[in-house]
C-alpha cells in the first residue's frame, strides 16, 4: 500500500468512526427526544417528573457536546485532495447540526418549560443537516 492509499484509508476510517459515534449518540438520545416530543405534542410537559425532565435536558447537552467534538474532528481530518471540497462541506454541515442540537437544548428551560417554536425549528434544522450529511458521506464513499 502506497502513502496515498494509506492516507485515504486513514481518512475513510476516521469518517467511519465519526459516523459510528454520531449514530451511537443518536440511538442513545432518540428515546428521550421521543419522550419530550410526545409531552410537548400532548401538552403534558408539566406532568413530567422534574428530575426526568432535567435528566433529559442534561443528556441532550452531553450529546450536543459529543457532536461538537465530532465536528472538531471533521474539521481536522485530512481528506484526499479529490475529496477536500466535499470534506469541507461535511465539516461545515456538521457544525450546523451541532448548532441545531444546541438550539434544541437552549429551548428547554429548567422549569419544564420549552420554547416550542425554537424546539421545532431546531428539529427541522437537525433534519436538514442530517440529510446533507448523508449526501456528503455518500459522495465521499462513492468517489
- Briefly note the structural class of the backbone: mainly alpha
Query: Radius of gyration, Cα only, in angstroms?
Result: 18 Å
Please give the share of residues in helix: over 70%
Terminal CA distance reads: 19 Å
Q: How many strands?
A: 2
List keywords for this structure.
143 residues, mainly alpha, elongated, single chain
Structural description of this entry:
With 143 residues, the protein is mostly helical. It is built from four helices and two strands. The protein has helices at residues 3-41, 50-76, 84-107, 116-142; strands spanning 108-109, 113-114. A two-stranded antiparallel ribbon has the order 1-2. A hairpin with a 3-residue loop joins strand 1 (108-109) and strand 2 (113-114). Helix 1 runs antiparallel to helix 2 (50-76), helix 2 (50-76) runs antiparallel to helix 3 (84-107) and helix 3 (84-107) runs antiparallel to helix 4 (116-142). The longest helix has 39 residues, at 3-41. 19% of the residues are buried.
Summarize the structure in short.
This protein has helices spanning 3-41, 50-76, 84-107, 116-142; strands at residues 108-109, 113-114.
Outline the secondary-structure elements.
Layout: H1 3-41, H2 50-76, H3 84-107, E1 108-109, E2 113-114, H4 116-142
Antiparallel strand pairs: 1-2
Amino acid at each position: 500500500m502506497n502513502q496515498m492509499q494509506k492516507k485515504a484509508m486513514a481518512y475513510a476510517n476516521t469518517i467511519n468512526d465519526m459516523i459510528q459515534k454520531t449514530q451511537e449518540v443518536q440511538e442513545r438520545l432518540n428515546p428521550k427526544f421521543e419522550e419530550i416530543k410526545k409531552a410537548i405534542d400532548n401538552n403534558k410537559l408539566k406532568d413530567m417528573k422534574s428530575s426526568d425532565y432535567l435528566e433529559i435536558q442534561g443528556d441532550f447537552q452531553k450529546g450536543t457536546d459529543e457532536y461538537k467534538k465530532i465536528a472538531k474532528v471533521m474539521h481536522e481530518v485530512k481528506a484526499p485532495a479529490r475529496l477536500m471540497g466535499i470534506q469541507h462541506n461535511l465539516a461545515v454541515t456538521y457544525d450546523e447540526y451541532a448548532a441545531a442540537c444546541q438550539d434544541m437544548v437552549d429551548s428547554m428551560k429548567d422549569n419544564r418549560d420549552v420554547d416550542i417554536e425554537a424546539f421545532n425549528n431546531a428539529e427541522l434544522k437537525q433534519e436538514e443537516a442530517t440529510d446533507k450529511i448523508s449526501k456528503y458521506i455518500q459522495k465521499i464513499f462513492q468517489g
